[in-house]
Design goal:
With 406 residues, the protein is an alpha+beta fold. The chain contains 12 helices and 21 strands. Strands 13-8-1-2-3-14-20 form a 7-stranded mixed beta sheet, with helices on both faces. α1 crosses α9 and α5 crosses α6. It is globular and about 50 Å long. It starts with a helix and ends with a strand.
Length: 406
């Protein structure tokens, strides 16, 4: 999703030319034709400034074999796991002013109630279920059902949603130009085919997807470790998108925009109807483009192991989750009290340096809008909320390194 926001920023920057303006119009047509309707009655904002108020966006990474290269995904050739599940489920919360971004990952093996969901063909509804792994929601009712499931679990309204398949992830990572990651020791995983030596790597294409999917061979071999690994990747991607190598490079941004459009037309990327509006996408991008690293926080929804016959499954820890969502509702800055290693997959190695946007402002001659700060100004200190130590996570201000299993 953050890559998609980078695409939108690129469209804004270059759409003054005739070719780019046509591309925006053509993109809206291509994307809109394949959208999933969540709520047709919601009015879209009219202006091109940052979106007003807060917004929640659900992001899904699905495991569908449809349209995938069977040479890369052997199980697709054997069709040994039919159906499409939400293998990755994340809720992106963008706050009102002052802007903050919180990304909440939901373990795919977490047992939750799944509400009654409409069938994709409009023929009726699927029955509600009292306890299923959250990754079954997509199989029972597509993106809309996963939205309803997360809304029921969290009590949060989800305004927009998107789902991407494996090939879409490969192509989007190529378009970005790769994402830098760190591994603390050699990794060799027969399940995903990923082989990395200890040290720093720039991952593109298939390797990027393998890194996001890996769980065996890192941390404790669980999905919780995999989430920590994904958070390292996303944190690094945020830093790259805010750097000059992407947002100040029109060629890279146009390539991202073209890739996004092609993934929609090829069925590798699905957007809810609201996200098909270029205006709305620009407003979301404008809201997040300058958020400080320390206020871009990645957390795991708190869980504990179910025990008994469901020993490999986890269940929600709702008291800890309530503290998180109360802080988000109050738009308070978050402090993680546990270290990133609680997510079982990474260790903190350093602190990232925030890009200085002052030079950019001076070069463009732009004057910040009322209430908007620049890098040279000192923000007013706010009391930070210390999250329960059972909530694992990391921020974009932290550089982390994946820890091999054992």
């Amino acid at each position: 999703m953050l890559a998609m926001l980078g695409v939108v920023l690129g469209i804004v920057g270059v759409s003054a030319t005739g070719v780019a303006a046509y591309s925006v119009w053509d993109a809206a047509q291509a994307i809109g034709a394949n959208a999933v309707v969540l709520d047709e009655e919601k009015a879209l904002p009219p202006s091109l400034g940052a979106i007003e108020g807060g917004v929640n966006i659900l992001l899904v990474g699905s495991d569908s074999c449809e349209g995938q290269d069977v040479a890369l995904f052997p199980r697709c050739a054997n069709d040994d796991s039919p159906g499409e599940r939400n293998d990755v489920t994340m809720l992106v919360h963008i706050s009102d002013e002052p802007r903050r971004v919180t990304v909440i990952s939901f373990p795919r093996d977490m047992l939750v109630p799944i509400p009654s969901c409409p069938k994709e063909d409009g023929s009726g509804d699927y029955s509600a279920m009292s306890s299923q792994m959250i990754n079954a929601s997509y199989m029972y009712g597509g993106l809309a059902c996963t939205v309803l499931t997360v809304e029921q679990l969290t009590g949060e309204e989800i305004h927009f949603a998107a789902a991407i398949r494996w090939t879409g992830v490969i192509n989007m990572s190529d378009a970005i130009g790769g994402v830098d990651v760190c591994v603390a020791g050699d990794i060799s995983d027969v399940h995903t085919g990923l082989n990395l030596t200890a040290g720093n790597h720039t991952l593109v294409g298939v390797e990027a997807l393998q890194f996001l999917r890996i769980r065996h061979g890192i941390g404790d071999g669980s999905d919780l470790g995999r989430i920590s690994n994904q958070q390292q990747f996303m944190s690094s991607m945020v830093r790259k998108l805010q750097s000059e190598s992407v947002l100040a490079n029109p060629g890279t941004l146009l390539n991202l925009a073209g890739t996004l459009i092609s993934q929609v037309s090829q069925g590798q990327l699905v957007l809810s109807s609201g996200l098909t509006s270029p205006t709305l996408m620009v407003q979301i991008a404008m809201a997040v483009k300058d958020v400080p690293y320390e206020d871009i926080v990645f957390v795991q929804y708190p869980t504990e192991y179910a025990g008994g016959d469901g020993a490999s499954r986890v269940i929600p820890v709702k008291d800890a989750a309530a503290a998180l969502f109360a802080a988000l509702a109050a738009n308070q800055p978050l402090t993680l009290t546990g270290d990133a290693s609680q997510g079982f997959g990474v260790e903190v190695t350093g602190e990232a340096v925030q890009p200085d946007t002052t030079a950019t402002d001076e070069a463009t001659g732009e004057t910040p809008a009322a209430g908007e700060t620049t890098a040279a100004e000192t923000p007013v200190a706010e009391e930070r909320v210390e999250l329960p130590s059972t909530i694992a996570g990391q921020t974009a201000a932290q550089t982390t390194c994946t820890v091999p299993e054992g």
